[in-house]
């Protein structure tokens, strides 16, 4: 596994919230809130190297030369589970634009099937975060990244809560220029393409559909 473009975030709060997220007894309401909070914590790290520019303002007492983000940011959730991560990131960067990519996994072939793609016209000027809670086989993530690359953005990072080694290998092979940011790397995929130990189907657990 190539670690040069792979970042695993480690923090006591992340480990604590990720344990609650994995617990099968966590309600869909709490699961959704935890996923948003984890995405917010992740945003703090993935935005660390963003450029800022001077922003002169007036405090109640005197002029002050502040700083504001120079980079345009676009968050692209992979529907449907990625929506909850997008919200957590928007809480931290509310001026970010949002695109949407709709993919589902064919349960027989495990290959991604596209049904929707809507991206901001200005995405070519953006640092883009493609977000999906789980990086399993890597098929959906790779397809989503390929769709974003057609618009030639300034940079692309793929952000997930949990990753499998198999998915990381696929992204590093097909998109070696894209940074992968995750909170934890799990053991492997099972015969159905689910991450072990994982947390189950993220979309179903977010929306209470199973």
TrEMBL record:
HAMAP family assigned: Upp_B (MF_01218_B)
Reported regulation of activity: Allosterically activated by GTP.
Family named by the database record: Belongs to the UPRTase family.
Cofactor binding remark: Binds 1 Mg(2+) ion per subunit. The magnesium is bound as Mg-PRPP.
Record-listed 5-phospho-alpha-D-ribose 1-diphosphate binding positions: 80, 105, 132-140, 201
Listed name of the protein: Uracil phosphoribosyltransferase
Gene Ontology biological process terms in this record: UMP salvage; uracil salvage
Pathway: Pyrimidine metabolism; UMP biosynthesis via salvage pathway; UMP from uracil: step 1/1
Single GO MF descriptor: uracil phosphoribosyltransferase activity
Protein's organism: Candidatus Cryosericum terrychapinii
Gene it is expressed from: upp
Annotated catalysed reactions: UMP + diphosphate = 5-phospho-alpha-D-ribose 1-diphosphate + uracil
């Amino acid at each position: 596994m190539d670690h040069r473009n792979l970042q695993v975030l480690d923090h006591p709060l992340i480990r604590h919230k990720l344990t609650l997220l994995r617990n099968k007894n966590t309600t869909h309401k709490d699961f959704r809130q935890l996923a948003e909070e984890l995405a917010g914590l992740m945003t703090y790290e993935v935005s660390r190297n963003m450029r800022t520019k001077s922003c002169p303002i007036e405090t109640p007492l005197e002029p002050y030369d502040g700083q504001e983000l120079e980079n345009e940011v676009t968050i692209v959730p992979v529907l449907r589970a990625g929506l909850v991560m997008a919200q957590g990131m928007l809480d931290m960067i509310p001026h970010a634009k949002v695109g949407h990519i709709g993919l589902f996994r064919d349960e027989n072939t495990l290959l991604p099937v596209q049904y929707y793609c809507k991206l901001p016209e200005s995405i070519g000027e953006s640092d883009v975060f493609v977000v999906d809670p789980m990086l399993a086989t890597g098929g959906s993530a790779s397809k989503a990244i390929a769709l974003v690359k057609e618009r030639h953005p300034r940079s692309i990072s793929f952000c997930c809560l949990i990753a499998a080694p198999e998915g990381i290998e696929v992204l590093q092979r097909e998109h070696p220029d894209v940074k992968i940011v995750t909170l934890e790397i799990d053991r492997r995929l099972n015969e159905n393409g689910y991450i072990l130990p994982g947390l189950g189907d993220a979309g179903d657990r977010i929306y209470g559909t199973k």
